[in-house]
Structures are given as structure tokens and as C-alpha cells.
Amino acid sequence: MSATQTKRIFIKGNEAIARGALAAGLTCYFGYPITPQNDIPEFLSTELPAVGGQFVQAESEVASANMLLGAAAGGARAMTTSSSPGISLMQEAISYLAGSDLPAVIVNINRGGPGLGDIGTSQGDYFQSTRGGGHGDYRTLVLAPGTCQEAYDMMIEAFDLAFKYRNPVLVLGDAIVGQMKEPVTPWVPETINNYGAEDWCLSGARGREKRLLKSLFLEEGALAGQNIRLQEKYTAMQAEARADVFACDDAELVVVAYGSIGRIVKSSIRRLRAEGHKVGLVRPLTLYPFPAAVLEDLARQGKKFLTIEHNCGQMVEDVRLSIRKYGDSDFHGHMPGNLPGSDDFTDPILARLGR
Amino acid sequence: MSAEQIVFQAPEIMIDRATHYCPGCHHGIAHRLVGEVLTEMGLVDDTLCVGSIGCSVFIYNYLNVDAVEAPHGRAPAVATGLKRARKDKFVFTYQGDGDLASIGMAEIVHAANRGERISVVFVNNTVYGMTGGQMAPTTLIGQKTTTCPGGRCADREGAPIRMSEIIGGLGGTAYCERASLDSVKNIRRAKKAIRKAFEVQQQGIGFGFVELLSGCPTNWRMDAVAANKRITEEMIPYFPLAVFKDVTAEGARECMPEADLSESAGKSAKEVK
């Protein structure tokens, strides 16, 4: 993708998400305040109208997700953002978006749960994000940024994937990536591809057959047909799986960690490498589709595995499924409610190495 | 003997198909009135419909317009997003009482309060139709349903909610009227009410709302004639037919002015494939 780069700026991850969405051609934003993602709507409340877009502070997360559904039906590049409890409220609309083949971007700045939990960082929403989250058999593409630059870049990718597959795309950040400040080099894609959205979106039936965007299929066999189509789409999506593979070539132990935790683990790995330990890292960049092939390939080489997450054990299930023919993965969970540093992970890694 | 002449036919927007509604149901009349108004206003090619939940979800099978389906109660939010994305199109929702006055109470109140440039057709038949006749927020005191078999009791289930009175009191509402489909005279008035609720959107004034008192003979366990009589004798006294707000008549623009951002849209847009 050719692009125009601009001067490096020092911004929060939340602002990087907002700026990335604008660069991706965002025209409609709907949201409701919840910590720790409020910088996103606050930034867009001035910046989006300034470029001719629509900003609505909805009455609830339920409403904002349904506004997203409406704007998506109109073919707009639309987005909502929230944090864990708010994302739970949005799940019904996300299911409808998936069931109606509509493109939309939803950002979750994951905080601690369950329930009200706290406003600190966590990776507790992995299951919710990668298993559909709402009712019915559906999946959303899930991107997991670990840096502010990735947060920016993945917003552009998220809109592209949403329109490519006519499917909701979730960007799963967390309070660390949302709230930290880093240098980011903004860029704007030279072209925006809506993958023929004008051929299916609602624009008034002038001179053509009317269009109907729905998820209700009552006729005999119709729902089965829709589900077959959706599953074919999810199969096609597997081509989008990506991971950051770090120091794995000669590694005896591969650590699997994603998002900001993956980045903290990378620091642990660097330190252990400097001490001569043969450890590597696979940091999934897409959580759905999960980069199973990368892990399976490493498992085939006989490597040991350790999955580290900032939760009580969720992604480890996907890791185990990926490598099941050749091995298994241990798990180390850093309990939500505590902020980890790279020191916290060296002992668990060494323990799995057997040293 | 003179040749046959067609003197009355369905508006072009209506799709010629057999109805799925029960005998005596007023959705058919309501659909027809909406179709006539859209046709007369020249909106056939520019209308986007938001379907909701219940018997009337299939409105998109009867009108030849683009449509999207909303989750239960959320049609005003879906319409908000759709209108914001397609500001030059006419956007309306069609919702029943269970959809709009129960689960969807927040969405209807806030869309109206924001003065969204959308129009809402609210069909009130005091009962949940599609799910088999359960109590609605609008079920009258003493009315028996499958979930208030002894008759609705205000102490137990609360009093029936009067939606037009609520919507009429909100700042963003430009037009709000309750009409009825129980008689020819009231049907003619209902059409005018729908037209006014639609016109305020076209004029960019604000939110348009029309409530249509309707019958559900099947779930009321009565025939069509008795259902009409019930509307006249029991519903209208509790749900009075009136204009609850008309900003056009007041000559004022009470609803929030909206900055017209649409003109600048596209200037910054990049090449779109």
C-alpha cells in the first residue's frame, strides 16, 4: 500500500487510534464515554466534524453500536470505540452486523473484569473478542496492537479488512496501549478501497432493484445457506493471519503473548537472550484468524511452548489447538488487576525452559 | 357500454403480493398510507426504511425501497446512523409498541431529543403480536393478555405508557401526532399525520413521530369489527387523538440546529475505488 508519511508525533495510543481511523477515511463515529478509551471520542468530537464527518455521542453503548449498524448499511466508513463493559453491551449489534454482512470497526480498549472490574489494563476479553461474543455462529476479525504505531497502522488495516470481507473488525487494545505515549509516524493511504460497497449499500432504489440488508432468514434452508456463506467467509479470512516472530529460529522455548503483554514479554526475552537462554517469541497480530500455521510449524520442530497472558488463561486454548499434533503449551497468567513488568515474566520463562 | 377504466390503484411503491398479516390487522392500512405518502412526496427512489421486530419486520417485503433490519427496539439508533451516513436520503422507522415503548424506550427518546432528521411510524395495538399476545407497555388497564391473564393491573404492572405525550415533550421533536386507523375518517387524518411527520424531515426541521392506534384481532381474541369498536371505545379515550407538537405550526425552530457538515464532506476524501 503506497502512502504519504508525515512528521513523527508524540501521542497516546488512543489518539493514534483516532488519527489512524481518520487516515483510513472515517466518516461516522458513534460512541459513549467509558474509561480508559475516552481520549478517542474526545479527539474525534472536534477532528471528525472538521473534515466533514459525523460525530454522535450516543445515549448508550447499545445505541452507539446500532448507530454503527445503520451507518454501515449506508456504506459509510464507520466506527465505535469502547472498553470492556461497554463492548459487552454492543455484542447484540455486532452479531447483527456479522449476520447482515456489514463492515464496521469496533475498538475495545480492554480493561479489567469481570463485571465492573477496574479501569486498569487486562486481556480478559480474548474469548469475547475471538469467539464472536454475541449470539449465533459468527466471527469478527480481531487485530491486536502492542505499540502506538501499531495502533495507528492497524486502524487503516481494520477498515480495509472490514470492507474487503463485509464483516465487523475488532481492534483489541488494552489500557496500556491506549494510555501510553509514544512517537508515531502518521501516514495516509493514497487510495481507499471500499471493495464495491456502492453495489450493496443503501442509497435509495433509484433506477435499480431495492436492496435489503438483514439477518432474518425464515424461508426453509435460507438460514443454513447464509451460515454456509458466512463460514466460507471465515475460511477465506484465514489468509489474513499474522504474527510477529522474534528470535525463534534456534529457540528451545517459544513464548506466545499478544498485544502490550507481548511487547513486555519481548523485553524479558531480550534479557534472557543476552544471558544466553534460547528463547523466542511469537506475538500474534491477528487473534482471529489465529496464526495457527506459524505455531504449528514451530511445534513440528520440537520446540517447547509457554503462553503468557494478562488473564486467567484464554489464548492458551488457541495455542494448544494450533500445536496439538506435535506438543502442548504451558500457561502463565498475570492476574488482571496487577500491572506487570518484564521482570515478572523471566522466572516463568526460565521455569518452562527447565533451568 | 363503456370500456373499463382504472380509477384507483396501489401506489407504485407498493409491492403486489399476498399479505402475511392476520385478517383485520391494521398493518396493511398503515403500510398503504406510508406508501401513498412516500409516493405523493416523490420519495420513492430516495427512501431508506429501517425495519424492526415483530409482525411488522416484514414491511420491507411490501415497500419497494432500500431497507435494513434493526435489532429489537434499536431502530431509532440504526436510523440515526443511516441518516448520518446518507444525509440526502429520507429515513424512516416502522415500529410496534413492544419494540418502541419497552426495550427501545431509550433509543426513541434520545433520537427524538437529539432532533435526528428521521421519521418514526409507531403502530400501537396494545399487545405483543408476533410472540403471541403478551402484555405490552401500552396494554390497557384490565386488558387480558397471555402474561397478564387476569387483566393488567396498574398496581402490579404499571399504567399504560402514552408515547406521543412523551415524544411531544422533547426538544428535538418537530412533529408528533397520535392518529387512529379505526374508521375511514380517522384513516384520512392518519395519512395527513404521517405526511406531516415526514415533511419535517424533508424540511430539515427535526424529528417526526406519528402514532397509529391499531387493532390486533387475533391476539385480542375478537373479530375485525369488534377490534375497530375497541379502538374507538377503549383505546382513544386513554390515548387521545391529538397533535402533541408541531414546530411548523408554531413557526419556530425549537429543535437543535445542526451544523451542516455535509458540504465539506468529500473535500478531504481521497480517491475512492
Helical residues, percent of chain B: 25-40%
| Count of folded domains of chain B | 1
What CATH calls the topology of the largest domain in chain A is Rossmann fold
Q: Unreliable runs of chain A, pLDDT <50, ≥5 residues?
A: none
What would you say about this model in short?
Chain A has twelve helices and 18 strands. Chain A is α/β, with parallel strands linked by helices and 355 residues long.
What does this structure look like?
The complex is a heterodimer of chains A (355) and B (273). Chain A has 355 residues and is of the alpha/beta class. Chain A contains twelve helices and 18 strands. In chain A, the strands form four sheets. Chain A has a seven-stranded mixed β-sheet, with helices on both faces. In chain A, strands 13-15-14-17-18 form a five-stranded mixed β-sheet, sandwiched between helices. A two-stranded antiparallel ribbon of chain A has the order 1-10. In chain A, strand 5 (78-82), helix 4 (84-99) and strand 6 (104-110) form a beta-alpha-beta unit. In chain A, helix 1 packs parallel to helix 2 (39-50), helix 3 (61-73) runs parallel beside helix 4 and helix 9 packs across helix 12. The radius of gyration of chain A is 20 Å and the shape is globular. The relative contact order of chain A is 0.13. Chain B has one domain (26-246): 3-Layer(aba) Sandwich (Rossmann fold), CATH 3.40.50.970. Chain B is 34% helix and 18% strand. In chain B, strand 5 and strand 6 form a beta hairpin. Classes of the chains: A alpha/beta (355), B alpha/beta (273). At the A-B interface, helix 3, helix 4, strand 11 and strand 12 of A face strand 1, strand 2, helix 2, helix 4 and strand 10 of B. Strand 11 (191-192) of chain A pairs parallel with strand 10 (271-272) of chain B. Chain B: It comes from Desulfovibrio psychrotolerans. Chain B: Keywords: Oxidoreductase, Pyruvate. Chain B: Residues 57-199 form the Thiamine pyrophosphate enzyme TPP-binding domain. Chain B: One of its GO terms (molecular function) is thiamine pyrophosphate binding.
